[in-house]
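Encode chain A's predicted structure.
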Amino acid sequence: MIPVSVAGIQTHVSAVLDAMNIVASVLGITKSERPNKTKMLPRRTLPRGLISVLALSACLFATIAFPAEAQVNENPQAVAYFEAGIAAYEANNLPLAYEKFLAAAKDGHADSQFNVALMYEQGIGIGKDEMEAIVWYGKAVAQGSSAAQFNLGVLYENGRGTNIDYAKANEWYRKASVQGDALAIGNPGMLYVRGQGVNENKVAGVALLLMSATENRSPENQARRNISATRGLTSEMIVAAQTLSEELSSAQNLLVPLDRYLKESENSTETK
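Encoded structure for chain A:
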């Protein structure tokens, strides 16, 4: 199978994306330059080194917009601390916001645990401590937080607060992906494209990126750019990736068809 030229890859990728009604400029930007970063609560990416007070405030308020559903069984005192933390943040009293979120987090409030982790990760209202961020993200994921699962994946992938561990990053991305986190679906796609922590499989990687780009078309999602930056693709591989992406999208659990394809690919390679 002969690899197509870079221009040919971009043409095929554009055709695939157009078929999905995705408007994407073809840019040669690699994952290392434009990855999906850790996110704000509840589902927002955060560019490294850039904190938007307005964005964080908006995301925090989004959390209390649905208290009846999200917090019906939670400790009332923890919820009160959480809301006090939001009020302090709105008043730009970041140390007090941290104090209130921490109090709620210690009482087991999952959103506050995420916020405490984020504040440690980014140095908001408290000294930056990525190792402590991992501890608090770990508490939030124990309660099923997909955003915390995603952020743990990013920290392990980039070796922030811990050693680089692509296998663990993939594990957390997979957990978040099952919960429907579109950004988390794209990041393991790049691990498969590069063969980091997993066996290289560009078809599976591009399929995940396509699914991510389809389900999250926000500017924060780098999936489209990463597809067009992927080298060594053939037209057959792109078609196979599109087919697999459609199968992943229609599955109740995307990991089932993904793992089946990966196993079949490995078996096919071993028999050659």
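Residues 255-271 form the longest helix (17 residues).
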